């Protein structure tokens, strides 16, 4: 199996800044953004609305130009090129299909503009129709298609010119739940079959975790953390990342000692525990640590329990159950347990319970 | 559905009476005009039997045909010039971020709708007479220019309405798919704008065709258009020939406006 070397980047965004407006109305949409996206990678920009993820995508597409920094495509600076000169295509949030053209004409548009020979265009369009399974609808106007079908036309249209990079701007947000799940799998398949680098923008953390090879979490114009879904979920370095992705228990703890990226801390209530330290941090004094709800279990108070409290609520979710525990220190701690037929009996609400945190599950934050 | 009925204007007391009276008053004179076009006698007030003789008379009247042909040529030229200008104006005012002064620009483009026609007429009369003196040119150009100018807002409105309906991201998508600015306009913007342009063209044509005031002031000797010719005739003897010409005129206008409706509603 061939492996691309780590420094073979499709897109490099170097110290990019973007300011809208000027003077007192200036708004900094992106601030010193630095990210390198590998070839054939499924890369996701994740963040709440207004965090700058779509702005960054538009800069890569060429719909606007950065006020600072460079954008490189395979090492070449493209920050000043107009969109029609970039081998980069976009799947728009509202699809932006041409309503006066048929499905085939939409898919052919990019190739026609590139002046490709007619036979080649016909072959490409046929191949694309097959890839997105729309052969039967090729002569329909796009207005007559369902949302999922329009989505696939938009994908085929963007993939037909075989771009170096495909940009996807929240392409699944207009679809209903079931179709969204189907399209997630479909997108992964397309990325695998075409071997094109995908840059996917979303505010849906679950979508990001299931689809991405790597995720960049953004907030107010900054990239806070870049890593694999597992890194981002299990080892959030910043409070925002921990809070934005999934549910988290935040606790304050006192650092006792630190060695090899692991710190011994005293949890509220006095129990000792080991927490992972983020890169480049030398912890001391009081720190924040996070534990995911599924990385802890309810135990009898006493032996083996790191925390003790009273079980306040039990919330049933079908696939799993959430236990809200009011700790002796007054803080809340949420646990999640997968429901299974042979799960043990659960304590009643109001019972005094102990909480045992899984080994290696505690992560220290930078702040 | 009681509440919906209560808010429906049709269920207000007296509504049918008022509406019918208005329609009656609006269309009665026109109906009378059309009826008397078919009068066998020479009166526009006394019915003397059915005949098509006045249509034949009008058709054989050299002056009528001459004026009608001139009106047609002016209207075609003016409509094309006005629509081209209006298309550019509509693009310039919608394909941009809103900025200070944009509303003033709308008002400026639509000025001919607000400035009294008689003021424009006098201004053009004085302005063009200077140019006529200086250049010696006395052709139809003056009328075409004047008509084109006051037709611009009429062509502008349907085109702008159409442009505001089309999604800006379509042009972005075209650019993303390797279309240059011109290609994006040619293959995406223009085809989507086409119904609006056609509607603007037809509206401008009709407006130019029946203008009297500005034409009366601007025309040189021997440049009668159909409306100014009719006005001149009415000062002398009134025969059903005028009714016949008016009836044909009415048919053409209604026909074009109907077409305008069909075209502007298409594919929306």
TrEMBL record, chain B:
Membrane-spanning residues: 12-38, 72-94, 106-128, 140-159, 187-209, 244-263
GO terms under biological process: transmembrane transport
Transmembrane helix recorded as keyword: yes
Pfam families: BPD_transp_1
Subcellular location: Cell inner membrane; Cell membrane
Topology in the lipid bilayer: Multi-pass membrane protein
Keyword field contains Lipid metabolism: no
Domain ABC transmembrane type-1: start-end pairs: 68-260
Taxonomic superkingdom: Bacteria
Provenance organism: Pseudooceanicola pacificus
Protein name as it appears in the record: Spermidine/putrescine transport system permease protein PotC
GO annotation, cellular component aspect: plasma membrane
Function: Required for the activity of the bacterial periplasmic transport system of putrescine and spermidine.
């Amino acid at each position: 199996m061939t492996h691309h070397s780590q420094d073979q980047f499709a897109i490099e965004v170097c110290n990019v800044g973007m300011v809208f407006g000027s003077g007192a109305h200036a708004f900094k949409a992106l601030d010193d953004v630095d990210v390198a996206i590998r070839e054939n990678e499924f890369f996701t920009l994740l963040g709440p609305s207004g965090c700058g993820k779509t702005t960054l995508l538009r800069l890569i597409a060429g719909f606007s130009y950065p006020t600072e920094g460079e954008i490189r495509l395979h090492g070449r600076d493209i920050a000043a090129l107009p969109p029609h000169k970039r081998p980069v295509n976009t799947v728009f949030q509202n699809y932006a299909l041409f309503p006066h053209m048929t499905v085939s004409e939409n898919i052919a548009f990019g190739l026609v503009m590139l002046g490709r020979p007619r036979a080649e265009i016909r072959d490409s369009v046929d191949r694309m129709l097959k890839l997105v399974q729309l052969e039967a609808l090729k002569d329909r106007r796009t207005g007559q298609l369902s949302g999922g079908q329009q989505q696939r036309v938009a994908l085929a249209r963007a993939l037909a010119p075989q771009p170096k990079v495909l940009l996807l701007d929240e392409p699944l947000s207009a679809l209903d739940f079931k179709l969204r799940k189907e399209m997630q799998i479909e997108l992964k398949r397309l990325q695998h079959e075409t071997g094109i680098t995908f840059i996917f923008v979303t505010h849906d953390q679950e979508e990001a975790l299931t689809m991405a090879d790597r995720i960049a979490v953004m907030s107010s114009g900054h990239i806070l953390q870049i890593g694999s879904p597992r890194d981002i979920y299990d080892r959030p370095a910043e409070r925002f990342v921990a809070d934005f992705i999934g549910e988290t228990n935040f606790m304050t703890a006192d650092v006792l000692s630190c060695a090899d990226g692991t710190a011994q801390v005293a949890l509220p209530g006095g129990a000792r525990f080991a927490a992972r330290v983020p890169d480049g941090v030398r912890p001391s004094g009081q720190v924040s640590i996070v534990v995911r709800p599924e990385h802890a279990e309810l135990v009898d108070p006493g032996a083996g329990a790191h925390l003790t409290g009273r079980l306040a609520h039990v919330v049933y979710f079908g696939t799993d159950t959430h236990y809200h525990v009011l700790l002796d220190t007054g803080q809340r701690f949420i646990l999640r347990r997968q429901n299974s037929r042979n799960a043990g009996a659960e304590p009643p609400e109001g019972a005094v319970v102990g909480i045992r945190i899984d080994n290696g599950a505690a992560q220290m934050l930078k702040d | 559905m009681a509440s919906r009925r209560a808010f429906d204007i049709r269920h207000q007391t007296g509504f049918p009476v008022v509406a019918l009276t208005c329609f009656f008053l609006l269309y009665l004179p026109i109906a009378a005009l059309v009826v008397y076009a078919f009068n066998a006698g020479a009166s526009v007030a006394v019915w003397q039997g059915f005949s098509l003789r006045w249509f034949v008379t009008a058709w054989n009247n050299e002056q009528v045909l001459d004026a009608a042909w001139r009106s047609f040529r002016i209207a075609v030229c003016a409509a094309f010039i006005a629509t081209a200008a209006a298309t550019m104006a509509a693009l310039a005012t919608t394909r941009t971020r809103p900025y200070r002064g944009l509303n003033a620009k709308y008002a400026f483009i639509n000025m001919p709708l607000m400035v009294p026609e008689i003021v424009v007429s006098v201004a053009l009369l004085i302005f063009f007479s200077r140019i006529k003196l200086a250049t010696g040119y006395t052709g139809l150009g003056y009328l075409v220019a004047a008509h084109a100018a006051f037709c611009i807002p009429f062509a502008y409105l349907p085109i702008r309405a159409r442009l505001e309906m089309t999604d800006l991201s379509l042009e972005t998508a075209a650019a993303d798919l390797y279309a240059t600015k011109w290609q994006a306009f040619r293959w995406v913007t223009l085809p989507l704008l086409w119904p609006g342009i056609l509607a603007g063209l037809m509206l401008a044509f009709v407006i130019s065709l029946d203008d009297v005031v500005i034409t009366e002031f601007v025309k040189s000797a021997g440049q009668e258009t159909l409306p100014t010719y009719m006005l001149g005739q009415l000062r002398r003897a009134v025969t059903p020939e005028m009714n016949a010409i008016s009836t044909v005129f009415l048919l053409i206008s209604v026909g074009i406006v109907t077409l305008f409706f069909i075209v502007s509603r298409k594919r929306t």
